[in-house]
Amino acid sequence: MTTPASPPSPYSAALSSSKVESHTLSVLVDNEPGVLARVVSLFSGRGYNIESLTVAEVAHAEHLSRITIVTSGAPETIDQIHHQLERLVPVHQVTDLTASARSLERELAMVKVRGRGENRADALQLAEAFRARIIDATTESFIFELSGKPGKIDEFVDLMRPIGLVEVSRTGVAAISRGPEPI
Length: 183
Fold this sequence. Notes:
Elements: H1 10-17, E1 21-30, H2 35-46, E2 50-59, E3 64-73, H3 75-87, E4 91-96, H4 97-100, E5 103-114, H5 118-129, E6 133-137, E7 141-148, H6 150-164, E8 165-170, E9 174-177
Antiparallel strand pairs: 1-3, 1-4, 2-3, 5-7, 5-8, 5-9, 6-7
Helix pairs in contact: 5-6
């Protein structure tokens, strides 16, 4: 016996019709214990995904840190995340760097590749094409250092898979607005 399907909620129908977008948010916060936990709790408590997260102190004298978060969702969801972040007590400023279209994003990766013979030569050629730097080499493997846009790193990793990809370590996205003014 089958049970009749319940009609979809109007809320879920509205969300499913929106296009999912990836956005990079820069959050300027007090550099104090517990701040990162509060930001992450906001995301987990509401079911938002964090695709990349980086944190670093950016103004020592003022005790300020920047949290750079890459997340995705419908435009309404991104707006909701933005407004909820602004309401957190230790947050000074939230900037959607993707919406400003005047920002730069970079990521650093270390990629370990197994390689002997022809695979070794292929790995070296690809590394040169991607401007990856060899930071460790043995007779059986390499570790390459690569920086660039996240998509470039994804592409490099995908090309290394058939050659003998062993392991990847990535920093997460670092982003900054262009021009003479701070965000």
